Amino acid sequence: MNENDLYSLVHTGTEGDIEFYVRACKDVEWVLELGCGSGRMGCPISRVAKNYLGIDIDWERARLATNRGIVCYCADMIGFQLNRRFDRIIMPCNTIYCLLSEDKLISCLKNIGQHLAKNGQLVFDVFVAYHQRMVSHISKSRQDNGWVKEVHYKNKIWDVYESVEILPGSGRLDVHYSHKCRSTDEKIETKIPQRYFSHNELPQLLGEAGLMMTSITGGFRNEPVSDSCERIVVRATLSR
After folding, report:
1. Which of 224, 201, 226, 202 is nearest to 214 (CA)?
2. Residue-wise pLDDT tens digits, 104-116
3. All residues at 6 or more sequence positions from 114 whose CB lies less than 8 Å from its CB, including other chains
4. Are 18 and 44 in contact, with CB atoms under 8 Å apart?
């Protein structure tokens, strides 16, 4: 089984995320999606935005997105260079957590600023994973969260199990997935390294890159940010 097939089958997004980003990009002149994957978000957005472009660091995922009819390039979101500014730059579904150091995060945000139109917006969402909350749920460095879902691929059923490993003091966590076929002894292990931050850090992080946060909500329906919210949605623009 191809790991990109696994990723697409397991990671189908968060409830309401496609609808949110479609609204955010409707009738927008130019939209850029960073970490577009195989086009889960790009396909519906490309139908409502006037122009859509996606980039992904993984060649195979970029190829799959292109095969689905959207414009996509294989590029690193830190170092991409496009001869255009965009009215919306979006990073859905924890993409920004893939930047595994603060230096990489700031470099990416600076590059975004160089590609953002004067009145453009950066829009992204992440799950709330800052340490103050995680520590109450995870009492050891590796926590087995158990069965997540079943996926169907090539006439076989696969059970997917998840565990989270926290790297203390680093802001890092690795999410491990074990995929087990019910009818054979096949087993595939994958890992998604991530680096999280708290919403309180965002104004400074964005400011260092010349960006300014204009709104933050606790979900896709403008819920207030609270200690119990599971996801934050952020909008930012160029600093005036």
Report:
1. 202
2. 999 999 999 999 9
3. none
4. yes
By the 10 Å C-beta count (0-12 exposed, 13-18 middle, 19+ buried), 235 is classed as: middle
Q: Say if residues 143 and 164 touch (Cβ distance below 8 Å).
A: yes
Does the pLDDT of residue 170 top 90, yes or no?
no
Residues 196 and 64: their CA atoms lie apart, in Å, by 28
Q: Check residue 11 and give its pLDDT.
A: 82
Q: Is the pTM of this model over 0.85?
A: yes
Picking from 88, 36, 89, 94, the residue whose alpha carbon sits closest to that of residue 65 is: 36
Q: Which position has the token pair 């927008």? A: 28
- What are the angstrom distances between the C-alpha of 54 and each of 22, 66, 187? 14, 9, 32
Query: Could you give the CA distance from residue 212 to residue 238 in angstroms, rounded to a whole number?
Result: 6
Task: State phi, psi for 83 to the nearest 5 degrees.
Answer: -85, 55
